Amino acid sequence: MARQKGLMKYVGTICDVRHFKIKGQQGFFAGMVGEPTAEQVNSAPEFERTRENMNEFGGCAIAGKSVRTALSALMSKMADSQITGRLTSIMKKINLEDGTEARGYRKVEISTQRNYLLGFEFDKKLSINGVFNAPYDVTHTACRESANFIIAPFNPADLISAPSGTTHFRLINALAVVADFVYNATTGTYEPDDIVNNE
Predict the structure, then answer these.
(1) What backbone phi and psi angles, to 5 degrees, belong to 160?
(2) Does the structure show a pLDDT above 60 at 2?
(3) Residue 14 has what pLDDT?
(4) What is the β-pairing status of strands 29-32 and 2-3?
């Protein structure tokens, strides 16, 4: 993909070149016009693989949104602007692990692929280990109704890398339950397989 480096900043199409911005990225971008029509993508046999990919990608976006919704009280304060894409990308990795369903309808089976979410940071530029270095442990009940965040006594001056001028800190332990997502042929979309335990 081309990137403009000159002084002219514009969006739109000139001849066969379209110019645009990408959210979260600096600068303006350019690309060739000539994409297939929506009708071709939705019905032509040569776009069957594209439709399969689109269907699964949509399911992964729904699963990622479920995580963001469950933790929405914290997301506005702690997440970067690209968390949606990063979380959808992880859900796609989980989706690719499913070998039980046909391509285009594979499950997003979070319960068996939790390892993909280990260490996920809401803000990719600011990790918890980059700020908080005290040893801690988190345990939760089997039904995930409560959790314990256990930290041994420590000296904050030694184990917290705080921004200059900081005088206080707090640790927040948030708990959410997210179901696996499966394709529902009746509704034509991905849905949680356990709606009660998706909150």
Answers:
(1) -125, 125
(2) no
(3) 67
(4) antiparallel
